């Protein structure tokens, strides 16, 4: 915005006069918010996959279109990324990833517009998962308290244990020493803890 002011004398014969101008730049404002939902069943076991659903909105009363909108999600270390896409009015597109960081470059959101992202992950261990995502844009956001959202997911363990028992020699005679060998295998997908083996001898 450029504002110009001029000062002059009332005498038309006097050409003395001064004017000045000042240019002021006003920052554009876009009020964005983000929500994050872990779409899971009642129980999620280690080794299973589930989806994080993210919703980003440029509020209807936002004075400007948000440009350069980006969704950033730093995944927990105990998950494995399966896929990540975002959806706008223009269609569905792939997000990019580097390590555990996921970036969805949404682009523009007019006031009232919404974009979503779906990030599918596989849980690797039985422990609580806390995952946060944030949204940013090129404009100034007057309320940054809703620019970050988190989801807490409890991952349970599901361990498939198997046991095998062999005897040597297979056909012992009376007085022979027999050795029993027990082999315990965890066929996953989760870590088995507190494993106990009980063998009742004949």
Brief synopsis:
The chain is mostly beta strands.
Q: Indicate the percent of residues in helices.
A: under 10%
Quick one: biggest sheet? Answer: 6 strands, mixed
Compute the CA-based radius of gyration.
32 Å
Sheet with the most strands: spatial strand order: 4-13-12-6-10-9
Could you characterize what this model shows?
- It is a single chain.
- With 202 residues, this protein is mostly beta strands.
- The chain has strands at residues 2-8, 17-23, 32-39, 44-45, 49-58, 66-74, 79-88, 91-94, 96-98, 101-109, 114-123, 128-136, 148-156, 159-168, 179-189.
- It has a six-stranded mixed sheet with strand order 4-13-12-6-10-9, with no helix packed on it.
List the helices and strands and how they pair.
Elements lengths: L1 E7 L8 E7 L8 E8 L4 E2 L3 E10 L7 E9 L4 E10 L2 E4 L1 E3 L2 E9 L4 E10 L4 E9 L11 E9 L2 E10 L10 E11 L13
Parallel strand pairs: 4-13
Antiparallel strand pairs: 1-2, 3-5, 5-11, 6-10, 6-12, 7-8, 7-11, 9-10, 12-13, 14-15
Structural descriptors:
single chain, 202 residues, mainly beta
